[in-house]
TrEMBL record:
Chain segments annotated as transmembrane: none
GO molecular function: ATP binding; ATP hydrolysis activity; ATPase-coupled transmembrane transporter activity
Residue ranges constituting the ABC transporter domain according to the UniProt record: 4-238
PANTHER family in the record: ENERGY-COUPLING FACTOR TRANSPORTER ATP-BINDING PROTEIN ECFA1, HEAVY METAL TRANSPORTER
Species of the source: Methanoculleus thermophilus
One Pfam family here: ABC_tran
One of the GO BP terms on file: cobalt ion transport
Protein name: ABC transporter ATP-binding protein
Cellular component GO terms held in the UniProt record: ATP-binding cassette (ABC) transporter complex
Length: 277
């Protein structure tokens, strides 16, 4: 049973705009899934179907094998948590602590359980010192972490992140990548995220969906997608610098193994160098 599955999902906004066209998507347990594509590809619209924010025009969305209904919507939103691209869209309480507590409180949990979940979420994101701060006085990176903490306090099994690195400085991006990579193994969570930064996909994803004009136009492992240069070009996405460089070296006769991350590239270069000396 898949955690999330869409079957021929189509969504038409009022006015006739077809945002999604027959999208088939699967999220498995403890996986890291990247959804990439140009602006307007339908990524955010797809995500809003995962916990019932939007309803399909046709097709269906299944969560743990069951369609989303009015009767199970509350449980679905406990199971699938979404963090929007702009944290101001979901931060509204007077203090950080109150904001993180909002979700579990509205699940009807008792005060002791809510306090424990808030403490855990603040600790996991490393923002304990922000608990008494006014959220709208925080930096963009701090707001992003508060928004994620608010969702994690509800203890979802699937965390959906829409452009999670948008507006972050390089250290913030690095910290977020490290955090996301811990979630499947340490907490058993599935992470689904969108990004325009393909260099991060190799660092953060096990599987990739490519979207364009509301449709899934490609899917596969990181290696399979990055090998399809024509697909990336057609969807106006650039091959990341590391595999692009190594592919160029291979084409020029240098025997070096393909790599997609900095650490793997370093290993490939050292092995290639050792063979030549």
């Amino acid at each position: 049973m898949h955690l999330i599955e869409t079957r021929d999902l189509t969504h038409i906004y009022h006015g006739g705009v077809r945002a999604l066209e027959s999208v088939n998507f699967i999220a498995e347990r403890k996986s890291r899934i990247a959804v990439i594509g140009p602006n307007g590809a339908g990524k955010s619209t797809l995500f809003k179907h995962f916990n019932g924010i939007l309803k399909p025009t046709s097709g269906e969305v299944l969560v743990r094998g069951e369609p989303i209904t009015k009767e199970n919507l509350r449980e679905v939103r406990k199971f699938v948590g979404i963090v929007f691209q702009n944290p101001d869209d979901q931060i509204f309480s007077p203090t950080v602590e109150q904001d993180v507590a909002f979700g579990p409180t509205n699940l009807g949990l008792d005060e002791t359980t809510v306090a424990h979940r808030v403490e855990e979420a603040l600790h996991l994101l490393g923002i304990e010192e922000l608990r008494d701060r006014v959220p709208h006085h925080l930096s963009g990176g701090e707001k992003k972490r508060v928004a994620i903490a608010g969702i994690l306090a509800m203890e979802p099994q699937v965390l959906v992140l829409d452009e999670p690195t948008a507006g972050l400085d390089p250290q913030g991006v690095s910290d977020l990548v490290e955090f996301i990579n811990r979630l499947p193994n340490e907490y058993g969570m599935t992470v689904v995220f969108s990004t325009h930064h393909l260099d991060l996909v190799a660092e953060m994803a096990d599987f990739v969906y490519v979207m364009d004009k509301g449709s899934v136009v490609g899917s596969g492992t990181v290696e399979e997608i990055f090998a399809r240069s024509e697909l990336l070009a057609r969807t106006r996405l650039n091959i990341p610098p590391i595999p692009k460089l190594i592919r160029s070296l291979q084409e020029n006769g240098i025997p070096i193994e393909m790599a997609y991350t900095y650490e793997d590239a370093k290993k490939s270069f050292l092995e290639a160098y050792a063979r030549r000396v």
